[in-house]
Specification:
alpha/beta; Rossmann fold; eight-stranded mixed sheet
């Protein structure tokens, strides 16, 4: 009788996989972006650029959604882009030729004009000076098609200025390539805030059910920008109009209702996350 095979423990998920499962919702993002673009311009969105793309999950999913879709992803972190090429682009096969990942600085990159550019997960907040933010927004403006749109997310509210740790359980799920992702705990750690200049430092921690901890899996050193500030800078960069898109609130569920619409007033929220759409024409 042969020896019994020793069962190997399941591989622990990479921190990038946990980030995607807990922070990103690319289907929601892309559905909204396509809706905003077509309502504004009367024709479908085709070419999309994801700045500060990280694992490029959004850029990859956009190409997966249509044979005539093309995307660009830009990021300064080469190891993360290498991970994206292997784990996100690789499984696509020939379709991956419609995804272009650039190891570059968004303040310096030169690329083709696209229909829509986006900067999500507050990544642009790494720019702490107004003049630098204006430089970035101006570069985006000039790299959009004539009817192009720039979308960024924004966050705020009283609790964003407090030193708190927000904890939640993330249920088991599957990634965009249908790989299993186990359930885990997610901690958003706001560890520092300076009211003088809105300098904020935050961390993301993960904890698996087997007790494995990913302490400071990601750390962010940002400026917390206000909506009026960002809209003023976008106007100075040349955008003719900006709109805010927020989801509604479900009192019974005590959570957002997931339906995004244009709003001109948003009140009585301890914290919020929304989108700014900036139009070139």
């Amino acid at each position: 009788m042969g020896k019994k095979r020793k069962l190997q423990p399941a591989a622990r998920p990479d921190k990038h996989t946990l980030y995607e499962a807990s922070v990103q919702a690319v289907d929601i993002d892309l559905d909204l972006f396509a809706r905003i673009f077509e309502e504004r311009n009367g024709h479908p969105l085709k070419k999309l650029r994801e700045d500060f793309c990280g694992t490029a999950q959004l850029a990859v999913e956009w190409v997966r959604q249509g044979a005539d879709h093309e995307s660009w992803g830009i990021d300064l972190d080469k190891p993360t882009l290498d991970w994206a090429r292997e784990h996100r682009m690789g499984p696509l096969g020939v379709d991956s030729t419609r995804i272009h990942l650039l190891h570059a600085n968004v303040l310096e990159v030169e690329g083709p004009k696209v229909d829509l550019a986006c900067a999500l997960n507050f990544s642009y907040s790494v720019f702490k000076e107004r003049r630098v933010m204006l430089e970035y927004f101006t570069r985006v403006y000039h790299q959009l098609a004539d009817d192009g749109i720039f979308i960024l997310d924004s966050w705020g509210g009283p609790t964003t200025m407090q030193n708190i740790i927000d904890k939640r359980n993330v249920v088991a799920s599957r990634d965009i390539h249908n790989n299993q992702v186990p359930g885990f705990k997610y901690h958003w750690d706001q560890s520092y805030f300076n009211f003088i200049d809105n300098h904020i430092i935050t961390h993301i921690h993960f904890r698996l059910k087997d007790g494995t901890k990913y302490k400071k899996a990601f750390t962010y050193d940002w400026r917390l920008w206000g909506l009026p500030e960002l809209r003023d800078i976008l106007a100075d960069a040349g955008f003719v109009e900006t709109e805010c898109w927020f989801d509604g609130w479900d009192d019974e569920a005590e959570d957002s209702d997931g339906h995004y619409a244009r709003v001109k007033e948003y009140t009585e929220m301890d914290s919020w996350v929304g989108y700014i759409a900036a139009y070139k024409k």
